[in-house]
């Protein structure tokens, strides 16, 4: 009997890749307008390398970009980038179609819902609140909070503990084979891969189910609970 669902967040409940890329590009354009003396495409190459080297959760991407280009700290240009980035992010941040409707139906079915996500706790909560979906979740579990992230099995075990459910009672929904599906399956959690976002073309011959829309979860749960 399925009693709960754990969701990945980025590129599972909303289009993380698209909105972040647009926000970063608009931020760099505004920084150039504010005095960052560099061509746009060259600035993006430098920023992309900073993000790759420092990670997406690093908090000073724009600081490092300014220092790399100008050789010094310029608070006006950095602040311009930060403000533009957040303004664009807020304007674009929306759940995938049918996300809210599906979450409402799942709650109506009496299921416990949780989020198990890599990232900084405040940032992930900010996304959930801005998306307007935070009230649906009984638990929100982040890698920063636990100290380890995906694909560590201990992180998934911690998620099960927080949900107070056994592996066979839980579905895990995510977009990546390597970080979502493989660890879930190793623990005996039913795995559902949603085919969307930048990892949609990953080779996948192991997911228990593949879906293109969250609404498909409803039928999967009904099918499983008949067994």
Number of separate structural domains: 2
Q: Structural class of the helices, strands and pairings?
A: alpha/beta
The first-level CATH class name of the largest domain: Alpha Beta
Q: Helix segment count?
A: 10
Instruction: Give the amount of beta strand, in percent.
Output: 5-15%
Number of strands: 6
- Looking at the overall shape, the CATH architecture of the largest domain is 3-Layer(aba) Sandwich
CATH superfamily of the largest domain: HAD superfamily/HAD-like
Describe the biggest sheet? Answer: 6 strands, parallel
How are the strands ordered across the major sheet? Answer: 3-2-1-4-5-6
Q: Compute the gyration radius: what is it?
A: 19 Å
Q: What is the overall silhouette?
A: elongated
Contiguous runs where pLDDT drops below 50 for at least 5 residues: none
Secondary structure: helix percent? 40-55%
Mean pLDDT: 95
Structural write-up:
One of its GO terms (molecular function) is phosphatase activity. The protein contains 10 helices and 6 strands; from the N terminus they run βαααααβαβααβαββα. By secondary structure, it is α/β, with parallel strands linked by helices. It has 2 domains: 4-15 and 94-224, Rossmann fold (3-Layer(aba) Sandwich), CATH 3.40.50.1000; 17-92, DNA polymerase, domain 1. It has a 6-stranded parallel sheet with strand order 3-2-1-4-5-6, sandwiched between helices. Helix 9 (177-186) links the parallel strand 4 (170-174) and strand 5 (190-194). Helix 1 (16-33) packs antiparallel against helix 4 and helix 2 packs across helix 3 (61-70). The longest helix has 18 residues, at 16-33.
């Amino acid at each position: 009997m399925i009693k709960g669902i754990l969701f990945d967040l980025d590129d599972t409940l909303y289009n993380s890749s698209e909105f972040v890329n647009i926000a970063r590009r608009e931020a760099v354009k505004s920084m150039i307008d504010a005095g960052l003396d560099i061509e746009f495409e060259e600035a993006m190459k430098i920023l992309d390398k900073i993000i790759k080297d420092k990670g997406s959760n690093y908090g000073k991407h724009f600081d490092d970009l300014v220092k790399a280009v100008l050789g010094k700290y310029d608070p006006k240009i950095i602040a311009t980038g930060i403000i533009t980035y957040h303004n664009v992010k807020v304007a674009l941040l929306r759940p995938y179609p049918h996300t809210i409707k599906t979450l409402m139906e799942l709650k109506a079915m009496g299921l416990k819902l949780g989020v198990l996500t890599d990232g900084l706790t405040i940032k992930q909560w900010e996304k959930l609140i801005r998306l307007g979906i935070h009230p649906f979740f009984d638990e929100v579990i982040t890698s920063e909070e636990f100290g380890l992230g995906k694909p560590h099995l201990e992180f998934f075990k911690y998620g099960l503990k927080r949900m107070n459910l056994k592996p066979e009672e839980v579905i895990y929904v995510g977009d990546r084979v390597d970080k979502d599906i493989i660890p879930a399956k190793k623990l005996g959690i039913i795995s559902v891969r949603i085919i969307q976002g930048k990892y949609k073309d990953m080779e996948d011959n192991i997911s228990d189910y593949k879906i293109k829309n969250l609404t498909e979860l409803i039928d999967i749960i009904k099918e499983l609970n008949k067994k």
